[in-house]
Amino acid sequence: MISTAASDDIRAFIDFVERLSGGASLSREGATEEQIQRFLELVQRPLPPLYLGYLREFGRQERVIRFADDARPDIDSLLRLYEDQVKRGKPSIPRKGVTIAAQSVSGARTLIYGRANWEPIVVENWEKGVGETIARSFRNLLYRKGFSAFRLPDPPRYAILANNRQDTLREALSFGASLGFEPYWFNDAYGACAESEDAWFVCQQDSRSFVMYLDAHSAAHRDALKKKFVEKVELKSSGS
SUPFAM superfamilies from the entry (predicted)? Predict the structure, then answer.
């Protein structure tokens, strides 16, 4: 398990994922301070410190972590989105929201602000239409995506396990703990990562379904773990 602690310092995140990658440096290009300041003027809300750090390090180009999946988190796309709203005079983002990844096939990604001094959650959305919550905070989402980028290889070799229950995440983590899996601090009700000495998994939970991506250093160990999760947590296998 790679040691890490909750932090709003983007350098701590970069250190974490570079250790996950075995020491390889992340290829990236940051937004300029002028671009970030213009974005702040347009959104008119305080942005999470770690997200500002993300913009400074990855705001123009980031090809590995892909925290927004196929949505577009680059600063140029975000500025075009917000400048277009100013021109049209008609908002196309959710109320109390700041879009941090412009819409693509899987929708956009938006921070939703609640009460004062509460950290915004992250949701999927299609213009003003809010879909599933995907993380309790940008911090949790970024670290989970960083873990996934280097623990779930492409092309995939991991097992995919799923069911249609809303309460599976807690059960999967509890059973995983009995098998030696340690949870990471960036877990929440919408997603989780855990790792043992020779295996790891990433989970996603929404209002309709649960999905686990399970892998290990050896295919035999992965398959043995898969069998245990299928039997004890009542999951169905849809992967290798």
Answer: SMI1/KNR4-like (SSF160631)
Identify whether the C-beta of residue 96 lies closer than 8 Å to the C-beta of residue 43: no
**Geometric angle at alpha carbon 65, from 45 and 194, rounded to 5°:** 100
Distance from C-alpha of 166 to C-alpha of 163, rounded to nearest angstrom = 9
pLDDT tens readout for residues 191-207: 999 999 999 999 999 99
The two structure tokens encoding residue 96: 């109390």
Q: Which residues of the chain have pLDDT under 70?
A: 116-117, 239-240
**3-class state of residue 77 by DSSP:** helix
Q: What are phi and psi of 226, to 5 degrees?
A: -55, -45
C-alpha radius of gyration, the chain, whole number: 18
pLDDT tens figures, 96-105: 999 999 999 9
Which whole-number Å values give the CA distances from 31 to 75, 124, 194, in the listed order? 7, 23, 32
